[in-house]
Amino acid sequence: MLDLQRIDTSWTLFLDRDGVINHEKEEDYIYNFDEFVFYDGVLEAMRILNPLFGKIIMVTNQRGIGRGLMTDADLHDIHSKMMSAIQQAGGRIDKIYYCPAVDKSDPSRKPNPGMAFSAQKDFPEIDLHRSIIVGNRLSDMGFGRNAGMHTVFVRNTHPEQGPDPSIDLAFDGLPDFAKSLQLA
Q1: Residues of the chain scoring pLDDT < 70
Q2: Second label for 175, Cα 20 to 30 Å away, from 20, 39, 45, 63?
Q3: Per the confidence metrics, is the pTM higher than 0.85?
């Protein structure tokens, strides 16, 4: 079980993007930054989380690229502007990993743990057993479990999600998780 009081800078925070950081488009993709809308309180949450974790990593499935609906350059533009807003608010993301694959068996497509292993290769100090994934889907929780992480479910897009063995803790959104850590 995840004890928030044990969290220190030896821990790594993995964040999903759509549905955690920004509003998802139902049955569609975010194609440009004009469509990217931060959830209320997320920028402040990123500021709170900044000093609490050694690394903050974003992991996101982006199959719109694999389907030819957008390009890597489109995604990099969105991420560059998102990172700028987060940094201006006093937060950070150390690196973003994304999987453009459409095939669910791709080792990097969540719930498969490939993006976690890529992060660990790039940052050898990451201990996946001292890591947390925050996501809004059970596939994010599966990603965390498959990599040996602790899991935090945010109910932004799926408030009806009941208890599940893959979920360690659940919060209404990233701001609530950040506030809980601040109080721990």
Answers
A1: none
A2: 63
A3: yes
